[in-house]
Amino acid sequence: MIEKRKHRRRLVQLEVELAYPGGAISRTKTHDLSIGGLFVDAAGVEPPVVDTVLTVSFLSLPQHSGIYSIKARVQRLTGNGIAMTFIDFGLDDLQFIDAFLSSVS
After folding, report:
1. Would you tell me which of 20, 34, 39, 43 could form a disulfide with 9, CB atoms 3.0–4.6 Å apart?
2. Rounded Cα gap, residues 77 and 92, in angstroms
3. Mean pLDDT calculated for residue range 38-52
4. Domain assignment present for 73
5. CATH number of the structural domain spanning residue 82
6. CA angle 34, 5, 30 (to 5 degrees)
7. Which pTM value belongs to this model?
8. Can you tell me the distance from the alpha carbon of 26 to that of 98, in angstroms, rounded to the nearest whole number?
9. Residue 83, beta-bridge partner list
10. Whole-number mean pLDDT of the chain?
11. 39 is in which domain, residue-wise?
């Protein structure tokens, strides 16, 4: 299989909250994370429609206090998870994700 991702993903489990456009909220864990997006476990999560924009809030970040949120578009759904691409993010978001990924390598 040919790898199509632009950014290398790292296996990392973090607790996240997914906020849906209608106001529904689901909690789950990440499976992997990269500069460009993430994959979250789908068990117990309301399945979104592909192309839906969700707000992903990171609830458990080592060495970081508070909650950090970023917008992500649903790219694909699988039997066990949701693949999302980060959108509408700025330099601060990029630096935050890069610093976190550097700390878990």
Report:
1. 34
2. 28
3. 90
4. yes
5. 2.40.10.220
6. 35
7. 0.85
8. 25
9. 39, 76
10. 85
11. 10-103
Dihedral pair phi/psi, residue 81, rounded to 5°:
-170, 180
CA distance 4 to 100: 23
Alpha helices in the chain (DSSP H): 91-103
Contact 86/70 with Cβ under 8 angstroms?
A: yes
18 located within any domain? yes
Question: Is residue 44 domain-resident?
Answer: yes
Give the count of beta carbons closer than 10 Å to the beta carbon of residue 84.
Answer: 25
* Number of domains composing the chain: 1
Q: Has residue 50 been placed in a domain?
A: yes
pLDDT at 1: 45
Angstrom distances, CA of residue 70 to CA of 2, 12, 53, 56: 28, 17, 10, 5
How does residue 2 score in pLDDT terms, banded at 50, 70 and 90? very low
